[in-house]
Design goal:
The chain folds into 2 domains: about 10-90, no CATH class; about 105-355, P-loop containing nucleotide triphosphate hydrolases (Rossmann fold, 3-Layer(aba) Sandwich), CATH 3.40.50.300. α11 (about 305-320) links the parallel β7 and β8. It has a 6-stranded mixed sheet with strand order 6-7-8-3-9-10, sandwiched between helices. It is about 30% helix and about 15% strand. By secondary structure, it is α/β, with parallel strands linked by helices. The longest helix has 16 residues, at about 305-320. It binds adenosine-5'-triphosphate and magnesium ion. Magnesium ion binds next to α6.
Length: about 375
């Protein structure tokens, strides 16, 4: 089963057909492509999706070698020759099994939208299509050393299921970014436990972080595009650093840029694109390796309302294909009209977890 994907969504049917990957033992009928990739990666066995946090076993590289490869990637931006990096986090769905996660043919393309957020509310089919719990927080507290008396997050306990679309709302300083940054292990909780696809992020070893991040796409308010690279190159870079072949890059990058409505602008530099277009490039970059979880911190924070609607429409489409999407936002209108699950933070405390929520009770 696709750990982050909806269990019964058409787009994930192929990957779901393998059963619950989190529990199974290695099988002789591993997909041929995966076996080949694994051999190409040094003759090692395919990653075993049963494996949880723990010591590297026969199918995994030594931590120091993995860390070295990643550092090399960070320095050069091109690690296609580094065989270690073609390994994946074993507890989450490998990227090559979600190749159909965003079928562009089904979804059309995203452009700056017309209509309203309310149009998107109708797309929520309820819990029926949700998969297993993939993110679990248990009494999570984060205290920054600079503010020892005021926890940024305090005692957060919640579960998020595969395929959900959630909003995270709250006033400035309520802890939204802290929450988001804990999910990709940018920061570590001071106490409590966070599990992502069964892996405890508090105790997770450093060498495994890159593998986690391949499965957690991040979108930020300020896009963070590389200014001297074209839209194509910005998206391609995300694949280069995880060692994807030129063939994969040539195939997947245009496909995802088409999905976000930018096939005509692949050769443009960021400063030749509008804010909405830049954000779409950044979303394309975050989803090009088909992460099962997409977390967005104020993705429409710098955009006008119409462009924001286009971005939300795109995120909603991505969610419809089975990707779990979490959006931290200040946009009251968006949250009120889309009526998705809302997590509300106040001074670091989860004060509301509502299935079809609104931004605040005072609307
Ligand atoms: N690196 C840090 N060191 C110390 N305190 C921090 C740090 N980062 C955030 N904080 C504090 O933690 C609290 C939560 O901050 P956070 O950035 O998570 O809020 P937010 O809800 O994302 O706010 P905004 O809507 O303004 O982005 C705030 O009180 C903030 O001052
Ligand atoms: Mg923030």
């Amino acid at each position: 089963m696709a750990l982050f994907g909806r269990s019964s969504d058409g787009a994930h049917a192929a990957s779901s057909s393998r059963g619950n990957g989190q529990r199974r033992a290695p099988q002789s009928n591993e997909p041929a492509q995966q076996r080949q990739q694994s051999r190409a990666a040094g003759g090692q066995r395919p990653a075993n999706s049963q494996r949880q946090v723990g010591r590297p076993s026969g199918g995994q590289q030594h931590p120091r070698r993995a860390a070295g490869a990643q550092q090399h990637a960070d320095r050069t931006g091109n690690i296609s020759r580094s065989r270690e990096v073609s390994q994946r986090i074993p507890v989450v769905r490998p990227a090559n099994q979600v190749a159909d996660v965003i079928p562009a043919s089904d979804l059309g393309v995203a452009t700056e939208a017309t209509g309203s957020y309310a149009d998107l509310a109708a797309q929520d089919n309820g819990n029926a299509k949700l998969g297993p719990v993939v993110i679990s927080l248990r009494n999570v507290t984060k205290i920054y050393p600079a503010q020892p008396d005021k926890p940024a997050l305090a005692g957060i306990t919640l579960d998020i299921r595969a395929g959900e679309f959630l909003f995270l709302v709250g006033h400035s300083g309520s802890g939204k970014s802290t929450f988001i940054r804990m999910l990709n292990r940018e920061i570590v909780p001071t106490s409590g436990e966070i599990y992502v696809a069964g892996e405890n992020l508090r105790t997770m070893r450093k060498w495994r972080i890159p593998y986690l991040r391949r499965n957690v796409g991040c979108v930020f308010q300020d896009f963070k595009l590389l200014p001297n690279k074209t839209a194509f190159e910005n998206v391609a870079f995300a694949l280069e650093v995880i060692g994807k072949s030129r063939h994969v890059i040539k195939t997947q990058v245009p496909e995802v840029l088409r999905l976000v409505g930018l096939e005509e602008k692949m050769d443009k530099l960021p400063d030749q694109l509008s804010g909405g277009e830049q954000q779409r490039v950044s979303i394309a970059r975050s989803i090009v390796n088909r992460p099962p979880l997409l977390i967005c911190d104020e993705p429409t924070g710098n955009l006008d309302p119409q462009t924001s609607l286009g971005i939300m429409r795109l995120l909603e489409r991505i969610n419809r294909t089975g990707t779990t999407v979490l959006v931290a936002t200040h946009d009251r209108e968006m949250v009120d009209q889309m009526r998705r699950r809302v997590l509300a933070l106040e001074n670091g405390v989860l004060v509301r977890d509502q299935r079809r929520g609104v931004y605040g009770y005072d609307v």
